[in-house]
Amino acid sequence: MITEFGKVFIFFLVGGLFVAAGLIAAWILRPKRWYPAKLSTYECGEIPVGDAIVKFNIRFYVVALIFLIFDVEVVFLFPWAVVFKNLGLFAFIEMLIFLAILFVGYAYVWAKGDLEWDKPSPELPTVKSIVQDFSVNVKETN
């Protein structure tokens, strides 16, 4: 007699075999016509230019994380709003504290400047200015 765990194991085993059979059949039946365009990086006809590793600006990640944080936190408001009348004053005060914490996080992100997309780039020193500063320092020490 098979237990419930045995039935689940057989289900996973049959599912795994089904996936493996599909992959093996696709590997056997697929056409094997290799040509240079097929082996290139892009199959759209574009010639690859430059390095494949591109440095992305960190602001993309910061904006994505800020969106995820506030989006996930706002999801907690919907179940609370649905049963708001049944919860009472204690749950209302808890939600006010929760919203205050969210507001403090939002104010911090705003004050830090992470919500501004177009930040001014820092002024980098040029080689000429570094050489001039060095030559001034050398003359002063002599």
Give the gist of this structure.
The protein has 142 residues and is mainly α.
Task: Write up what this structure looks like.
The protein is mostly helical. It has a single domain (7-117), classed as Methane Monooxygenase Hydroxylase, Chain G, domain 1 (Up-down Bundle), CATH 1.20.58. The protein has helices at residues 4-29, 36-39, 58-75, 77-82, 84-87, 89-112, 127-141. The longest helix has 26 residues, at 4-29.
List the helices and strands and how they pair.
Blueprint: H1 4-29, H2 36-39, H3 58-75, H4 77-82, H5 84-87, H6 89-112, H7 127-141
CATH homologous superfamily? Answer: NADH:ubiquinone/plastoquinone oxidoreductase, chain 3
Our estimate of the beta-strand percent is: under 5%
The rounded distance between the terminal residues' Cα atoms is 97 Å
Unreliable stretches (pLDDT < 50, length at least 5) are none
The residue-averaged pLDDT reads 80
User: What is the H/E string?
Assistant: HHHHHHH
- Give me the Rg, rounded: 30 Å
Q: Give the % helix.
A: 55-70%
> How many beta-strand runs?
0
Tally of individual domains: 1
What is the name of the CATH class?
Mainly Alpha
- The second-level CATH architecture is Up-down Bundle
CATH topology: Methane Monooxygenase Hydroxylase, Chain G, domain 1
Largest sheet: none
Quaternary status: single chain
Overall geometric form:
flat
Q: Structural class from helices and strands?
A: mainly alpha
Counted by DSSP, the helix tally is 7
